[in-house]
Specification:
alpha+beta, three-stranded antiparallel beta sheet, PX domain-containing protein, phosphatidylinositol binding, PX_dom
């Protein structure tokens, strides 16, 4: 039987001005239940979601028609013209309706923010909640495993089972410099794997880390997650605020990685692996085959989900250039 997916209609009926900035009022309706949800987003926030969607499509090789996100004006700000704002509103509405046509994109946390909660629904017991969560993420987790398997020879550090006499946690994080790009702060983060004695750096946005926290909350655990640092509503790009936020995010990540139950989850294995593919290792890598591979991690390399046309040999060690 063909699997059915929930149908949604997205409308942007109006917009509001706050401190000379345009906020689009977005209404998403579940066409099966008539439940709806309204959110307000700026163009820059919606553009960030677009880039996250593109990254999602690229990582998991999702085959869908190209999505056309409304472009910025080069010479004049759209916000200066009511006609231009109305035109952009219509373009954004079309774009996000195109996004919602693809069920593969609805599991992305940034898109889940728009989805209405079904009312008058019989409460589920804990087993049903766990079952539904597993069903929802099973396809995504399979894609993650496939992604990791294909990049196995490029990953030199993955979460391991903690050695009996090992006291230190495997991973620690240190935030370095940050840069402002398109009204967003991009942080440089240094990760150290104390078991493998390796360090590397990668860049991450606040929203990326927040998205990761959202997904962590889906994992059934026996303890309370550390609180994720909140962003100030006003002057969020203020230097003192950014400094405080870096400190808070550093404490948060180091707290998360104290829990092996979280570190060994598929989500965090993927986080660690992708940070290496996106970043740069500090120093030279060992010339021998790494023992920190998928074979020894919580995710096993699964050749049955790899592309048979992929000429990748998982037994071939990563080449070293220093």
């Amino acid at each position: 039987m063909k699997k059915t997916h929930t149908r949604y209609l997205l409308e942007i009926p109006t917009h509001e001005y706050q401190e000379k900035k345009v906020y689009y009022v977005i209404k998403v309706t579940n066409l099966d239940t008539n439940d709806f949800k309204e959110v307000k987003k700026r163009y820059s926030e919606l553009e960030s979601i677009h880039y996250k969607i593109l990254e999602w499509i690229n990582i998991f090789k999702i085959k869908i028609p190209q999505l056309q996100f409304p472009k910025k004006k080069i010479l004049f700000s759209t916000n200066l013209s009511e006609e231009s704002v109305n035109k952009r509103r219509a373009e954004l509405q079309k774009y996000f309706n195109d996004v919602f046509q693809h069920p593969e994109l609805q599991s992305l946390g940034s898109i889940e923010d728009f989805i209405p909660v079904t009312k008058n629904r019989k409460p589920l017991d804990q087993n049903q909640i766990s079952q539904n969560s597993n069903n929802q993420w099973s396809e995504i987790e399979a894609l993650k495993k496939s992604y990791l398997a294909k990049h196995e020879n490029q990953v030199f550090s993955l979460p391991l089972i903690k050695p009996q006499q090992q006291i230190k946690q495997q991973y620690t994080f240190k935030f370095g410099e940050h840069a402002i790009f398109d009204n967003s702060a991009i942080y440089t983060i240094e990760i150290t794997d104390h078991y493998a004695n390796k360090s590397w750096k990668f860049n991450q946005r606040y929203q990326d880390l927040k998205e990761n926290h959202r997904q962590l909350k889906k994992i059934k655990i026996s303890f309370e997650l550390p609180e994720f640092p909140h962003k100030k509503v006003i002057n969020s790009m203020d230097n003192s605020d950014l400094k405080d936020r870096k400190t808070q995010l550093e404490v948060y990540l180091n707290s998360i990685f104290k829990y092996h139950e979280l570190v060994s989850s598929n989500l965090m294995v993927f986080f660690i692996a992708k940070s290496q593919l996106d970043g740069n290792e500090i120093g030279c890598r060992s010339k021998g085959p790494s023992q920190t591979t998928l074979e020894y991690s919580s995710i096993q390399s699964q050749t049955n989900i790899m592309d048979q046309n992929d000429d990748f040999d998982p037994k071939q060690p990563r080449k070293i250039t220093c």
